């Protein structure tokens, strides 16, 4: 029986709300056949060892972590600015639900050095398991994903290369639980903007073997962390610096939090305006390394893949909530999931989510491609937003109510296209990579190699579009510079379309050869038809209705009720 009182006007079965279980409370590993297939492929013979860990993780994310996320969203962090004597302590107070979630995640952290060592001992790829961990976490709370993962790899990597030995040891102690432990923050953005580094006003002056930092950062996420990487002007250029809460002598460093941001979403990560008032800092660049920005930008690409995973996680959660609701909700005498228009929408969501899933996992565990992070984030961050908007629409008026989970998904998803560079910044990075590094050449080779792994059947559409993309890049390179910049966005979209299609074809080939069926080939064909085919003057109205005819096959491979 439900915990609600039965009233005279809700006595029919239509009001039996027990039928309306969404994603929360489920085991997110067990209900995701697409993730299971992906892990079988990436783990091979080690899958049997890893599966119990993934099953435990699915229960954790779908249970306690999802519940804590809702509570933290309702009771976000607060700033304790002054102590009882009026002294500035700038303490960020996180809610109990945040600490409970973080403790549980650190106790079962697939990204920790200890778990990575355990995985390697059994022959498993730690990167694949870490990717699965973050994918499941991001379905519960991308704010927590940001709080745990913001800049940790950047701080640790740069400190190991450039920090003094005593500071390096302090950083090792701070990150004893791994890069993804919530101890870092990266502070780049100022009031003048986040992407224009020439406009930075924070300055660094020599102070013994350290530096003194002065300036204001306008948007700093995870302000309750312990170690910050901060961009500042230094000897005519911009360089990254390490700042800790305490100076070497143990006294409080010159770091003040002016206020926490009152944000649209991602309330579980404390974002703040942070002032540096003569803060002790350490240059994260050595002799002969230039400004250190080159190394930092490589690490930023890893952060972009993290944001892309957040978009994919939100999209997957939106799909799960939509499938659950459409199956239970009845209108016009039958469930929404039985009605053609809703089936079309759900089929489209399934295909798009699995395409982005293929992209983000290739970025994390596939070959390292210079172009990949920007293209993957471009597509995945945007899908998180559109998929969560679709989920609100599937839920109707209920979706617009904060007691239902999809409203928070939509609020949270909006930040992903902003974090680590908006669409235009990503496009400019694609241009930089092609013009300076010829990065399109290994990218096109990767696409061709993926299509070479195709299953049986005719895949000439995808293969042909790989060739067309090469021609498009050549044509783009001959344009007037202003026109070429304006055309970057459609070019990047074309690149992402073909990239995703090629990866789905590659997955379909593996699925067939491994004896797991041919469902992924259906997904690949639907995606290629939607993104790569020329539908002619009838706009595809005369196409076969594969999305409807094979809806049950699509759904069974996407979600297990």
TrEMBL record:
It comes from the Bacteria. Residues 290-435 form the Acyl-CoA dehydrogenase/oxidase C-terminal domain. Residues 185-277 form the Acyl-CoA oxidase/dehydrogenase middle domain. Pfam families: Acyl-CoA_dh_1, Acyl-CoA_dh_M, AidB_N. SUPFAM superfamilies: Acyl-CoA dehydrogenase C-terminal domain-like, Acyl-CoA dehydrogenase NM domain-like. Keywords: FAD, Flavoprotein, Oxidoreductase. InterPro entries: Acyl-CoA_dehydrogenase-like, Acyl-CoA_Oxase/DH_mid-dom, AcylCo_DH-like_C, AcylCo_DH/oxidase_C, AcylCoA_DH/oxidase_NM_dom_sf, AidB_N. Its cofactor is FAD. Residues 24-158 form the Adaptive response protein AidB N-terminal domain. Belongs to the acyl-CoA dehydrogenase family. This is Acyl-CoA dehydrogenase family protein. It comes from Nonomuraea ferruginea. The lineage of its organism: Bacteria, Bacillati, Actinomycetota, Actinomycetes, Streptosporangiales.
């Amino acid at each position: 029986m439900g915990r609600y009182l039965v009233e005279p006007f809700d006595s029919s079965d239509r009001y039996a709300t027990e039928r309306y279980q969404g994603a929360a409370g489920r085991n997110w590993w067990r209900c995701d056949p697409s993730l299971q297939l992906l892990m079988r492929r990436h783990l091979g013979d080690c899958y049997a060892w890893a599966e119990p860990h993934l099953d435990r993780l699915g229960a954790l994310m779908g249970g306690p972590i999802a519940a804590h996320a809702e509570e933290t969203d309702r009771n976000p962090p607060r700033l304790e600015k002054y102590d009882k004597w009026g002294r500035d302590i700038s303490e960020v107070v996180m809610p109990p639900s945040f600490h409970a979630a973080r403790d549980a995640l650190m106790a079962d952290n697939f990204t920790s050095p200890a778990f990575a060592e355990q995985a390697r001992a059994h022959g498993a790829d730690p990167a694949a398991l870490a990717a699965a961990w973050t994918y499941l976490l991001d379905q519960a709370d991308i704010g927590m994903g940001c709080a745990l993962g913001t800049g940790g790899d950047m701080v640790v990597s740069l400190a190991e290369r450039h920090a003094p030995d005593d500071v390096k040891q302090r950083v090792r102690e701070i990150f004893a639980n791994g890069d993804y432990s919530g101890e870092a923050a990266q502070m780049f953005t100022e009031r003048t903007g986040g992407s224009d580094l020439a406009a930075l006003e924070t300055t660094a002056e020599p102070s013994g073997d350290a530096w003194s930092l002065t300036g204001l950062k306008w948007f700093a996420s995870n302000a309750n962390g312990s170690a910050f990487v901060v961009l500042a002007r230094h000897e005519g250029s911009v360089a990254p610096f390490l700042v800790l809460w305490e100076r070497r002598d143990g006294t409080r460093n010159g770091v003040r939090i002016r206020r926490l941001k009152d944000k649209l979403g991602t309330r579980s990560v404390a974002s703040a305006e942070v002032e540096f008032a003569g803060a002790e800092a350490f240059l994260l660049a050595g002799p002969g390394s230039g400004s250190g920005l080159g190394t930092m930008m490589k690490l930023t690409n890893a952060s972009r893949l993290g944001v892309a995973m957040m978009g994919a996680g939100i999209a997957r959660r939106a799909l799960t909530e939509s499938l659950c609701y459409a199956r239970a909700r009845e209108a016009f005498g039958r469930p929404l999931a039985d009605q053609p228009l809703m089936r079309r929408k759900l089929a489209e969501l399934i295909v798009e989510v699995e395409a982005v899933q293929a992209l983000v996992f290739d970025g994390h565990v596939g070959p390292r491609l210079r172009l990949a992070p920007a293209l993957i984030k471009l597509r995945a961050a945007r899908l998180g937003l559109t998929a969560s908007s679709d989920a609100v629409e599937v839920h109707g008026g209920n979706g617009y109510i904060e007691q239902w989970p999809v409203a928070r998904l939509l609020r949270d998803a909006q930040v992903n296209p902003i974090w680590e560079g908006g669409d235009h910044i990503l496009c400019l990075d694609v241009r930089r990579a092609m013009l300076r590094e010829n990065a399109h050449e290994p990218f096109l080779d990767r696409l061709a190699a993926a299509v070479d792994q195709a299953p049986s059947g005719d895949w000439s559409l995808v293969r042909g579009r790989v060739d067309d993309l090469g021609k498009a890049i050549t044509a783009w390179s001959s344009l007037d510079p202003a026109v070429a910049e304006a055309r970057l966005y459609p070019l990047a979209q074309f690149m992402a379309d073909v990239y995703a299609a090629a990866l789905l074809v590659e997955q379909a080939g593996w699925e067939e050869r491994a004896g797991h069926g041919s469902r992924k080939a259906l997904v690949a064909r639907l995606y290629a038809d939607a993104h790569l085919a020329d539908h002619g003057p009838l706009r595809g109205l005369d196409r076969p209705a594969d999305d409807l005819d094979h809806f049950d096959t699509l759904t069974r491979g996407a979600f297990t009720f």
